Amino acid sequence: MSQCEQVLHYMQTHKRGITALKAFEKYGILRLSGRIFDLKESGYDIVTDMIEVKNRNGDVCRVAEYRLRG
Fold first, then answer.
1. d(CA 61, CA 53)
2. First to last CA, the chain
3. How far apart are CA 26 and CA 1, in angstroms?
4. Fewest CB atoms within 10 A around its CB: which of 8, 23, 32, 50?
């Protein structure tokens, strides 16, 4: 399965979207934004939400979370 197929399958089977950290942990994908670009170019309607997470120091930071619209 290609990286795009893995990301698409994840978004189709999880209500919560996928972040770069989740993509790296689960699939070893280093450039999730590149795969999202490829999927959008293929016609998929993908929404980007900025969510707050805590980093390893406990500080709050914002990261992109991608999900299929709908």
1. 6
2. 24
3. 13
4. 50
Instruction: Find out whether 18 and 66 touch, Cβ atoms under 8 Å.
Output: yes
The predicted-structure confidence for 24-65, as pLDDT tens digits, reads as follows: 999 999 999 999 999 999 999 999 999 999 999 999 999 999
Rg, Å, the chain Cα set: 12
Interatomic CA distance for residues 13 and 61, integer angstroms: 26
Biggest distance spanned by C-alpha atoms of the chain: 38
Q: Give residue-wise pLDDT tens across range 3-31.
A: 999 999 999 999 899 999 999 999 999 99
Structure tokens at 7: 């990301």
